[in-house]
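Running this now, will post back.
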Amino acid sequence: MSLADLASISLSKEREKEVIDSIKRFFSEKLELELTELQAKSLLAYFLHEIAPFAYNRGVEDTQKHLIRLSEDLPGTCFQEPMTYWDAGSHRVRRKPQS
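Update: finished.
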């Protein structure tokens, strides 16, 4: 993932505020450190740049494995038996009634 890709990962202003508040709360309650808004925002940028790619890549790997499993079973889920017209019995040709 490049820096250009990270730029496309954006949070809404509301979501960013929630995450920053959560970071500040974590540092306050768990580490007894008070972060400023700017410090928390910088930490969020760091997390998105350094750590988020691990989760992103794992998601891509998991998706790839899932799609491979689905594609391996395509014949089982998408197979249509040919030559069954006469087996069904309900597909008999009706003759035009004679008048």
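The CA atoms of residues 73 and 79 lie 10 Å apart. More later if anyone needs it.
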